[in-house]
Amino acid sequence: MSSDLPIRMVSRIVRGFGRGSKELGIPTANLSKQDFACSLGEFESLPTGIYWGFGRVGEPRQQDDDSVLGRVLPAAISVGYNPHYKNEEKTVEPHLIVESKHPRRHASATQETLLADFYDETIVLSICGFIRDELPFEGVEKLIEAIKRDIQATETLAANCDGDALAEKEWVASASKL
Ligand code: ADP
Ligand code: RBF
Ligand code: MG
Predict the structure, then answer these.
(1) Residue 1: inside a domain, yes or no?
(2) For this structure, is 93 an active site residue?
(3) Residue 178: CA count within 13 A, CB half-sphere
(4) Which residue's alpha carbon is nearest to atom 24 within ligand 2?
């Protein structure tokens, strides 16, 4: 695990520009900056980049359907200004990934995980490792290709994690605050 990681966060999911699902086919759960708690220093000093980690939305409840609420899932996480779109506000946006056999795993327009909306729910997130810098890709196709590679990398890293990252997975499973 990189030196300043892991970073633990608890927040609430808010609306962004809606581009993740509509333009990229890769939804991201945007963390509110109001109800935001972060374990290491100030949010603004968290370096921008693409990371991997684990996330959980909501509390465990009866699993009578394909709901992922309460489950710990691998997450490919964007931290920064989305330079392709030149955002003025820094965001933390995890894309949550369900297992390959799950019916929602390839349900999005670009064959990635598309779940039912969970705006306003609480999210617990641990950022475990750095993957790459965020880049101002020319054209949306290049951006989608790069994100799909990040998702693959995240799945591999999460499946093979041990030690510190495993401890983060356990923290995400049980934490309700920092
Ligand atoms: P926004 O700009 O409002 O964040 P997105 O297009 O990025 O819009 O969609 C994000 C929303 O989609 C999330 O807040 C969540 O409710 C839902 N969602 C569905 N599937 C996923 C997923 N795999 N990872 C994260 N959010 C998801
Ligand atoms: N946006 C960029 O402008 N450049 C990137 O390199 C980039 N990489 C991303 C990697 C991952 C794994 C994810 C989930 C998002 C990434 N984004 C990137 C953010 C993307 O533009 C953003 O999620 C959508 O615009 C929806 O808010
Ligand atoms: Mg989003």
Answers:
(1) no
(2) yes
(3) 15
(4) 20
